[in-house]
Amino acid sequence: MLSGKRILLVIGGGIAAYKTLELIRMLRNEGAGVVPVLTRAGEQFVTPLSLAALAGTPLHRDLFDLTTEAEMGHIQLSRAADLVVVAPCTADLMAKIAGGHADDLASTLLMATDKRVLIAPAMNVRMWEHPATRRNLAQLRADGVLTVGPEVGDMACGEHGPGRMAEPRAILAAIAAALSAGPLAGRHVIVTSGPTHEPIDPVRYIANRSSGTQGTAIAAALGNLGARVSFVTGPASVPPPAGVTVIRVETAREMLAAVEAALPADAAVMAAAVADWRVANAAGQKMKKGAAGLPVLEFAENPDILATLSRHARRPGLVVGFAAETENVVAHAEAKRARKGCDWIVANDVSEATGIMGGSENAVHLITEGGVEDWPRLPKAEVARRLAGRIADHLSAASGSEAAGE
Questions:
Q1: Where do the structural domains in the chain lie, given as residue ranges?
Q2: Buried (b) or exposed (e) across 141-165, using 16+ Cβ within 10 A?
Q3: pLDDT digits over 351-398, tens only?
Q4: What is the phi/psi pair of residue 382, to 5°?
Q5: Which of 54, 144, 152, 307 has its CA 20 to 30 A from that of 316?
Q6: Per-residue pLDDT tens for 119-141?
Q7: Measured between alpha carbons, how far is residue 109 from residues 18, 40, 77, 104, 242 in Å?
Q8: What superfamily does domain 188-403 belong to in CATH?
């Protein structure tokens, strides 16, 4: 399975770095090529000579290497791999990746790559349980970063608990899984995400509080299951996940056009918070205060993307809508499902007290033909993984029924 695959291995600064020597040996035994990248902190635990000798390829350490950077070597490194693996991934490295920092070769590679990233966290138990680490982990998962471990056990510092880096064999299995086809291999899924911005004039617009976090997490989770994802995103406040086709739009009409252009698809998840109305008399120049009294805005209804797709001639086999409500959540969502003609509705309460709109957690109700499932409040990345798994199961069952002639 790993024969001919190229792994870019980033080694962070933790005592568990010694395990990467065995990991490199195992990867090469499976036929994979390994390109090691050693952080300055990592040099305190393993030697460049050991890593280069086991990998059989040159080791990379410096961002400002005159030889490689004359050809933008960090870009080439980040794009040439089939998978980027960070082991050990320290608390500091997790924070850098989650925050988008790029102040050394390792963090710059992780920012520049267009490939999937797998991290093997390793740190003291208190660091692993710290709220900052938990926030960073949630953000990384929402961004589509894969994780393996950590395990529970004795620490080098003498404490016991979660934080031990996964053993090389477990990391090898995670690498193989990340590079395998997955249950959605060969499937095309469209995901919409984020808000839309409807212009009032060239500098003002109507928008909503959606951050795009949930839609981004869904796109990442579907990609992790092997789907080819067309990710149609409005001006979200979170970056798109790696490994998906990103189509950026501003308005509801642009989003509808992008969704139709992405067809055909096996499934569509309409998670975007699309503006119901747009300004029909948007000004071509910036409106001046006091120039002619208070401006009068005329509104027009935006196209209904979910209803249009649900009745489209090239309708996906599964259409999933979202219902952001502030009262009577399930009742309004059930009515929306019937009105729009979609298969499933993911409903949530976005009233201000919940903190869900723009937050890191969600509490949803999955409404299908079979009834209503009430999911507990979970990190949005976990909601995404559950939904992606349900979509994979549904498409697999549908394919089985077709094959059986039902």
A1: 6-178, 188-403
A2: bbbbbbbbbbeeeebeeeeeeebbb
A3: 877 777 767 788 899 999 999 999 998 888 899 999 999 999 999 888
A4: -75, -40
A5: 144
A6: 999 998 889 989 999 999 888 88
A7: 22, 15, 7, 9, 13
A8: CoaB-like (3.40.50.10300)
**Residue appearing with tokens 């950590």:** 150
Answer yes or no: same fold for 6-178 and 188-403: yes
Catalytic residue chosen out of the listed positions 80, 132, 152, 157: 157
Is 342 one of the annotated active-site residues of the chain?
no
Q: Mention the CATH class of domain 6-178.
A: alpha beta
The two three-digit tokens of residue 26, written as one number: 């195992």
Query: Three-state DSSP class for 81?
Result: coil
pLDDT digits (tens, 9 = 90+) for 74-114: 567 777 788 999 999 999 999 999 998 888 888 888 888 88
Q: Using DSSP bridges, classify how beta strands 198-201 and 151-154 pair: parallel, antiparallel or unpaired.
A: unpaired
> How buried is 82 (Cβ within 10 angstroms: 0-12 exposed, 13-18 middle, 19+ buried)?
middle
Phi-psi region of 394 (alpha: psi -120 to 50; beta: other; left: phi over 0): alpha
Distances (CA, A) of 47 to 29, 77, 103, 248, 262: 21, 21, 22, 44, 49
Please list, residue by residue across 347-361, b when 16 or more beta carbons sit within 10 angstroms of its beta carbon and e when fewer do: bbbbeeeeebbeebb
Of 160, 142, 141, the closest CA to residue 89 belongs to: 141
